[in-house]
User: Fold these one by one.
Assistant:
Number 1:
Amino acid sequence: MKYWLLALFLFCVFPYTYAQVDTTRLKAVYDRCLDFSEDKEDSLLYYASFIKQESDRLRFEKGDVLSLRLKGIYEEMNSNYPAAIQFYLQSLDASRKLTDVAYEKAALSDLAIAYANLKEPHKAKYFYLQAARISKGSGEVYDLVNTYNNLAVIYTQLKQFDSARLLLNEAVRFGKPFEKEIDLSSTYNNMGNLYCLEKNYDQALVYFRRNLQQHQAGDNPGDLWVDVLNLADVYSEKKQFDSAGKYGELALKMALELDSKGKEADTYGILSKLAEYKGDYRTAYSYLKKWYTLDTAILNDDTYSTVAELQERFHAKEREVANQLLKGQIEKESLRSRIATILAIALAIIGILIAIAFIIKRNANRRLKNINDLIVQQNEKLEELNYEKNSLISIVSHDLSTPFTTIQVWGHVLQAEPGKLTGDQQRAINKIMQASNNGEDMIRRILDVERKDIADHRMLLENFDLTIFAEEVIENFKPMAARKSIQLHADMPEKKLYLLSDKQLVSRICENLLSNAIKYTPKGKNVWISISEEQDAVSIKVRDEGVGIEKDELPYLFSKYSKISSQPTNGEASNGLGLSIVKRIVQEINGKIFCESEPGKGSLFTVVLKK
């Protein structure tokens, strides 16, 4: 609430002479006046005039805002809402001229409270939402709590209970950590009223009793009257008439002591309801007449019409300001229009120049296009020749690699029996082996170049028996495996298994995987190749008992030039391209490849190809 204590200030501040009054003390007077209770309302009017007079003398630009607001508070305390709203609107206008958002927010809140008391929640909501936008930007906890609390009251009056509860919970959440500095009693009071409207009276009592205990320790009779009246209302609804009567009579006594017609009227309303619940209709009627007399004296048709007239005047003034702004905007738009016309003429001239330049450039482009077409034709012819060259290299390198491997194998066989050969024969065998090694190196270099052009390979699809094909591949690698005493095992299906694919590319996949398996498997171990059918695909698996691959290296296994920690077991060459080539070929023929491996236990490569 905005009307709080501090009567001692009247005797402490104002013995100063006018010469001793400055703007700081004027602001202090204003702040203390905001805490005055209703029994000090006459002092409010006096100090509002004092602040106005001294502000004019000191040329204190905020004096009008402070004085007008105090006058509005005085009129509201006396239930003279038309006069209160008039002063609040003047205070709002003055604060906006100062561009002081703090005073603007205070004026907006005052107007919202006045309209709420007039039972016009929609208008109150209009002003509260404006104040909320300002409070939200400040980020101050006190402002946020007040904003949420005030809006919750309006939503409660509009019977939007869920929205009201959400706002009150937010007010408690923000204010609870600062409860020693921020008074949350109004929030708790509003929470209790909300529970009353929902007929949850026991929960409402929790909040009303909490406020009663807090305010009994203070010296603000206005807040204490609210707590007492709320308890009388709740006990009436709970049909606990003794407690309701006790608090109702106490509330009436306090309202009379405060000399507040509004509080007196509200108390008679509760007492009338209590008498009705007790079946004492004569007393209920008597209290109801008193309530009606006081309430209509405060809020009558003249009051509403006067308030509406004041509101319309204020809006008319706002519209006048808006019209002035609009007029200025029209003048700016007129100037912009003239500038736009000049720019349009300039753009037209530029457009003509651009058109001329375009014609010249188009002729140049036409000549350039003819040259480009000739270059494109030449490039296409070069690409075709280059493809034929790559195809020839691929065929030659692939066809020659196997014979050279066979020559080396049989050469090793002959070298293994030196006693059966003459010296010339032995030298001839050595020359053959040397030439074979040179040829194999040459093939490897050619393959290194050819590997870069796998994507340009022209697919040649044929339907071939994968079982027979795999047996041929295994047969070609038996000599290589024999050199390391490695046993090759084949696990083939009993029936024929046909695959529609590029036989050459499938061959390269199997050869690379078998070659790697033999390279990375120690002497005397085993290598398996298996073929199986899986619905609309075939699976080719190559498993070894080799050195295996570390788990953290598996993601990089198929990368180009990847170097993993695993090494061939007999010093064989490895350039890191094999598995990257395999993956590229597998992708080329729309397949998938997987690897499972464990260091020291070997690896399993699985290739899945669509039939």
Note: The radius of gyration is 49 Å.
Number 2:
Amino acid sequence: MAMQPLSDRTTGRDTRSDSSGEAGDGAAQQRLWQVLRHVSSPVFSVARRADRGLAHAGLERGPWLVIGVIAGIALWFGLATPVAWIGAVGIALLLATAGAFLLWRERVPDLTLALLGIGLAVAFGILLIWARSAMVGAPAIEYPQMETMNARILEREEQPARERVRLVVATRVGDNAEAVKMRINVPQDAATPEMQRGAVVRVTARLMPPAPPLVPGAYDFARTAWFQGLAATGSAVGPVEVVEPAPAGWGGIAAVQRDLSAHVRSHLDGSAGSIAAAFASGDRGAIAEADEDAMRDAGLTHLLSISGLHVSAVIAAAYFLALKLLALWSWLALRVRLPVVAAAVGALAGVGYTLLTGAEVPTVRSCAAAVLVLVALALGREPLTFRLLAVAAGFVLLLWPESVAGPSFQMSFSAVLAIVALHNSAPVRAFLAPREEAWWMRPLRGGAMLLVTGLVIEIALMPIVLFHFHRAGLYGALANMVGIPLVTFISMPLIALALVADLVGLGAPVWWLVGKSLDLLLAIAHFTASRPGAVKLAPHMGGFAFFLFVAGGLWLALWGGRARFAGFAPVAVATMLTIATPRPDVLISRDGRHVGIVEDGELLTLRESRSSYASDTLSELGALDAPPVPLASWPGAQCSGEFCVATIRREGRAYTLLLAKGRDYVTERDLAAACARVDIVVADRWLPRSCRPRWLKADRRMLEQTGGLAIRLPDREVQTVAQGQGAHGWWHGAGGVRREPEPAPKPEPRKPDQ
């Protein structure tokens, strides 16, 4: 009997088709794996080469992880919406996943750790700053208002140079049941000694929402206030009554700081006393504005803010004094490792000085770094390393991740990074190595190294200063070559000696020496700042150029071998972009009241503002250091009590601007006719829809959406403050009402005869 083909006897299904199907599936899977292997082979080859390159570079991983966190924080600030933030976290995690896959598929440990570490660090940075913003951010009040309230004082800052006392208070405004924090300026003659931390005062204040940037590129106080938890700022109107005195013990370190500052100023008058008080207690409120401007233009402002230089000087002095004095006690020297004890004394001195001077972010970072250096010295390790800097920076980022966006963290981190990179380089190590030489050669080499270090720091800080302050000092390295040793080795030790001598009533001669040393510092600052070309203003650097500067600088500092010189490429591109950045032709403030027109090297202003901040900001963003000129006195403008009409020419084309000055009633027909004859209309009030200029109507309705404007006429480009704000909590629009940012207005086409 012939056998039936192999089949399922109950169903009659032919099993040979199953076997052939399985064979077909296996062949298909094999072909798929071959295709994937063919496609992935070049990828794995590149991965292996990248891994060998990373292995030969010999990089320290710690600094790059911190840079990954910084990159994540910067991405959160730069991206506009929560969707973009979540997308960035997803991409970073995909990068980390790719690293994990390579670890499973290929033996590329260095590349795997790089991808995994950087991906996780970037994601962590985004989530860290997002969480910080959600926890500490305080919504601003919606509109300007006058309020009478009872408020508890949280902080008191003396500012005698500005004839006021600044109070940070907690109170409840209106029907809101939640307490809010705000900052109120009290005239100096209205402030009493009873207004101390912890006291409750009754005050009537004119309150404003924290101000967004006046124009694109200007200082963003709203962002700073958001992370400080400030819902409003304002000024006291009328007398301030102390309702409840401060409880005992509320003064704390702030009271000690205030008393120490007053003690120093009582022994040393004038500008020298104000600077000595800043060095001793961190109180800069008494420094005259002219002296601060001179120190800034001379590149010496960092000497006024307590940071790495001051903390390092205090810790170093405490360390070496403890080491030398304890060495005189033979019993202790034979039984205890004196460097460890001296390091503990130095650390305590540094922490105490940091707390006494206000524990600002740069001070905390410097204190953390200096304590780590002490630990390294006590253990006999190399003190100046990128790893220690990374630990100190990471400590600050965990506490204040928002500091990444501010100039203080950027400048201090960059300066220390430049110093460590320079002094760890082989040529510098060889130059500073001990050798047989004449006695005068060692101090000569030290002075040359100090000058080179100053130049490197100036170069490292210049992009940051240009980006935030739109100015660059040309003689800062020379001024610092004298100013830093003067403060570190003369002024600060003399201040410490004078305070100790005051305990026995013998401080007067030492205070005289302190005054002379600080008078010399101020003389250096004023002389340097007054030199021709000491300061150069520049238009606002774009974010892309700043990113290239930072990326190139980090590559130059942290990479190894000849490959590090590739960092000069992005720096060169950023330099060309910065040089090629044109000045804006018209600057319009967020409220429409202040308008600056750049014409023939002068800044023409619509109003002679009583606010030096407004005029200074317009001058800086216009890259013009000459005093502003009233538009009414310019021959190309015609001004009445209500409007100014100005015609300016760019690249052979005329542009006519209509600028509102007053608030008197103007008939709609006349206004519509005037608008139709001009290209741009600017007003600090709402204009009717019948006002239709040929290009742009920047009235209050538009400026509430966009914030301040920077206009370049030849390219017909309008840059707005809103473009850099996104959906972050501190952006409420220029009018104080939360609004979604709108894109910049697009120019309308012009007819050839217009």
Note: The longest strand covers residues 145-159.
Number 3:
Amino acid sequence: MEHKIATLDWADLAVIAVAMGISVIIGLYYRFSGGKQKTIQEYFSADKSMNIIPIAIGLMVSFVSAITLLGISAENYTYGTQFFVINLSYLIGTPLVCYGYMPVFFNIGAISAFEYLEKRFGRASRVVAGIIYWIQLLLYSGVVLYAPALTLEATTGIDKIWSIVGIGVICAFYCTLGGIKAVLITDVFQGGLMFTSLFIIIFTAAHKVGGFSEIWRIASEGKRIQFDEISLDPTIRHTWWGLLIGGLGSYLSLYGVNQVQIQRMMTTNIKSARLALWLSWPILAFLSALTCYSGLAMYSYYYKCDPKTTNRIESMDMLMPLFVMDTLSNVPGLPGLFVAGIFSAGLSTISAGLNSLAAVTLEDYIKPMYSFCSGHKLSENQSIVCSKILVLVFGISCIALAFAAQLLGGILQASLTIFGVVGGPLLGIFTLGMLVESANEIGAITGTLISFAFCMWIAFGQPRPLPPKLPVDTYGCSYNFNASISFEEAFEKSDSSYFYLYKISYIWYSVIGFLITMALGYVISNLSRVALKIPHDEPDPQLFFPFIASRIKKRRLQTEINQNRQFYTSTVCSSQHDNCPNNEE
């Protein structure tokens, strides 16, 4: 007897339709209210009028995609709870963003984060960094759209074509009409659906197995409760050091210098932006705790009959939808509410990407190109029309890339790794500019490109070992199955036979990229300055971290004092007036 998977009924589809319809209504509301999205400042920055709560939730959900909800729960089911430690690195990184990176971007007041690089280094650095970011975020948005569609098709019967087109069109529609205001307000609604989905999983499992304490007991006996890995070995997938240091690098790359998050912070003043970021951390940590615990909850239900081993699912990312359909398919509308939460996780990430991609493309490429070709600037009306067209075009592009993803095999894991690989070099070039006064464009671009190439090599070089999984059982299965293992597992080599760099955990990629960019950028900047005899101009203090800016201002003040003293000595005192200082002094 084979175990069949239930599918959604009309009540579930109605719940999904209502949830998606609310996002559309929010977009329409902001299109026809307030300033009606007629200026660039309102469309991309909400005229700095947003409240703290929507910004805090928006900062939290921007990169919490369906892949995150499905993946972190599967992570805890498969590898244990060690990953939760990464939330401590987010706490460490929050003040660094608030009092380090954030003041610099507020000083220049730019819509595009990459405008900073042009002010600090030059036009070429802005173009290079912008292109890397543009390709990466567009590809990631397409993957975020494809991943839940594939999973839900396999477990709920929803055709992935309808999922991809439906989510893509809805997202492009409300982003195009409502601008950043619609994106942030829908983030609040979609964030609520994400929490609801996780509560559904946890309370259902607790009811099935006999309570929350029973979930923890079963997980503990199955060796899923793990917080004791403190090794310094970078080849171990998750350790305290890797999650704290590597997690900090990832957090700073996402919240310190990423266009998506900076654009959200710029929708208010710096004081409110700091408060919003501080508030977003406990919300993110709570969501992370729920997601991790949901993995344990599902383990407590499947620990006697693992669905991956019995071939009920093709990958562990399908575990959460399978659990919902196995346990709640007899409750009309509830599976639909869960699916709406998964869709919402995708919507929040894609909408953030579309809006920021449009902002970067307009500010970094179209406006400069138009000014160069025509000799004058884009008008406000032309800019807003162009922005809406860009959002729509990028939305359609995401749909196309989502369909293309199914033709590229390992694109899901590859794209998630790229997200970390790109973040380190980009964090490095921004930090180099804000921290090192002697850094120049030659060093910044060279360091970034070499770092990016190196990270791509170690991230995608083959062959590479599979991470060890915790044991699973099938002794409690009540249906027939043919157990199988993957090709990679069947031909897995001994760990010592792999090239060392290919064994390094993905959690370190952002830190490696950051350090290489900083080191090469500093060395090449100073060597090129000497070799090319580039003069060292006095830098603009606003382009540096506050403590560096303070040092520059003090040095500049001391220089002015010395110059005034020399002027006084050489001119006023040339007559050897009694009040003048002694020449020997």
Note: Residues 160-209 form the longest helix (50 residues).
